[in-house]
């Protein structure tokens, strides 16, 4: 455990090396939120509800996307693991007394911590600038269930993206292609761009059998009281099933990949 | 003529590079089509459930999104080489570009088009042609102004990318500037009118993404006044002129430090 604490500490300090890049990256995240914010502001002009949301609920959803998405989807491992496998750098890690997956998960956590600190600041700034009326459930059960679903989403995201990036074991030249496919699916079907309630009921029902809405849509839905506690509990159970599947699958792909790994170029 | 022939050869080389990895080509193409399609579905359900959004009907909203994609995809396809400019600068490879008897700016601006985006562009053109013929039916004058403003949008996109190249020479930083441009343009998936006063003015006249993406669609719907058309075209030419001046300035300060 101590060595991972050290990795976390070093990775956190590492995030400060390219400060301008980081600030610009955060600025870009804020720009993305503005699109959804103003679109929904126009939708709610002259209306009290739309798609079952009140205006404060919807604007709350839009702003919470900034925080939830930041924690779930900021992962430097996505940009590095494929390359390390493809160019043989993975060998360096295999010789060390650390788990490769735990190493990168720890580094991702360091990045998430810094990003979450900034995103909270950004939410406060946006709230001060735009002064929207937003809704957040303060019921302890909702908060707890939302938080658990959020943590589960972080883990599902990590393992799912690793399955895609492990394609580098077999087709190193196509790694980014696989990654792009899964990132696009995650971007549009996770609820990061719009709440999935907008889609017809049968699409929403079908989507719950995929891992994507568990990343952003369901956690935020619970935070803004879109689901009853019983429903939220069921969603948590389903999320944990997806987490189990993604861990099992990623470990299988990892082990199969290691058997195929030849450290080409080393 | 000779320049056009060389640009054609650049296009041909780029196509061969893409065809060398057909799996990646197909994956990127399908993912982009999926993302494009799903946002259309979102706008459709948004509009059909609410009848209108702001002052626009669902079909108008879809038209804005289609035109956004047309301009965005065309700019990405043509100016993809800008994304590869930083490695050229920091490796010293830019020296080799400078010594060749071919306009340097054209080489680094349009020297590596993206054929994945070309495929998407063809799909988009077919969808837009159908939408215009069946739903919008613009009069000839509106259509002519639309084409003019579309060219103007590409001029503005070119100007922006030239600015980025100039900054790349001076600061060695390209990636984030391009991505910030992309995020500003992404705001224009919805009409610029959806943004409140000051921000709307900023997005129209300072970072003229409103002119690039919303104005052509507005022209098709005959919602644009002549003074605004005139301002849009003037801003396009001014931006191009300033970007070329900046490019020359940056080029004079190139130090070839990496070679």
UniProtKB/TrEMBL annotation, chain A:
This is ABC transporter permease. The chain crosses the membrane at residues 29-46, 58-75, 109-130, 142-170, 176-194, 206-224, 236-254. Pfam families: ABC2_membrane_6. PANTHER family: SLR1174 PROTEIN (PTHR36832:SF1), SLR1174 PROTEIN-RELATED (PTHR36832). The keyword Protein biosynthesis does not apply. The keyword Membrane applies. InterPro entries: ABC-2_transporter-like. Keywords: Membrane, Transmembrane, Transmembrane helix. The lineage of its organism: Bacteria, Candidatus Amesiibacteriota.
From TrEMBL, chain B:
InterPro entries: ABC-2_transporter-like. The keyword Transmembrane applies. It holds the Pfam family ABC2_membrane_6. The keyword Nucleotide-binding does not apply. It comes from the Bacteria. Keywords: Membrane, Transmembrane, Transmembrane helix. The chain crosses the membrane at residues 7-30, 36-54, 61-79, 115-136, 143-174, 194-215, 227-247. This is ABC transporter permease. It comes from Candidatus Amesbacteria bacterium RIFCSPLOWO2_01_FULL_47_33.
